[in-house]
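Changelog note: in this version the structure field was regenerated for every chain. One regenerated record is shown below for reference.
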Amino acid sequence: LQDIGTLMQGRQVFASREKGGIATKAHHSGGLQDRPPLLSEAIDQRYYLPPVLSDNFVFQPWLAGTATVRFYNASRNIDELKNHNLRLYLDESFDEPHWQEAELSEINLAECPDTPPQASSFFSLPEMFSSCKDLRAIEKGFADYLYQNERLELLRAPSLKLESRPGESETEFSVRIADYLKEKKELAAEKVLSSFQLKRQRLEKRLESAAIKIDKEKSDVSSKTADTFISFGTAVLGAFFGRKALSASTVTRTASSIKKAGRISKEKADVRRAEEAVTNIEADIEQLQFEQDEAIAKIADKYDPIHVETETFTINPRRNDIFDVRVSILWEMEVPAIKSKQA
């Protein structure tokens, strides 16, 4: 056996209560018996042997309960099954099951034989089981416990009318909320940008027209200025070189030149007004860009997941949705201590 113990070194043996493995108990004051207690044939007894090599079969008693709970909600399209496998250690002080104190079990009762191996030893059972005809009352209590305590817990975001799905973690639900808000944000931003794009196009069209007008006004000013200088110069030269000091035609040409000079002044004023119009339109475009950025920022804030509050809610099982209820006496073999070979 010492060599076998050496071979077993490094092999993981599940022996913690939390993982539903074998947990050695020492609450029995009496000695071991060479056969299991005599119980009613209606009481199911199962024997679990862990995957270890041993020739010393010592069994400790547990009360094992298994059941399936269904969570059904038609409006939410939920139909979930949850299997339960719990156990309570049966020491001498045991008088009734307190399932809230039970631990999870990983042992599949259906795979456990209903007869023990030869040369086995057994701890005693609590006295109450010797007078039980069956375990139906305990099974009913187990079903009642599940009905009163089992809940399918989900999350929801009321402001978005979103709910988590069974099996969806809080992180996964948060990601789904973020994706939902991102889609909403993109649609809202697209609508806002489309509206501002129309306004920008109208302003840019006005800006283009104003720029064309400036070029035209400047061209008119240059042309009329040149004509005026030529006309006025001709009149002056005619008066200077003419035989008469000031003929009627000279007076007419001079007056015409003066009028043209007045129109030039008006054209220059038109240029200034056109330039002011361009400046104003450019300012309008800049203001429009500011308003657009502000609107997009508001949308980003509105659809920021940080503002979404979530809460938990539960779906309760119906009484008839607790089924396959089974309670058995489970005999679990103690795992022998593994001794290392001495050097």
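Spot check on this record: The chain has a mean pLDDT of 82. The first strand starts at residue 45 and ends at 48.
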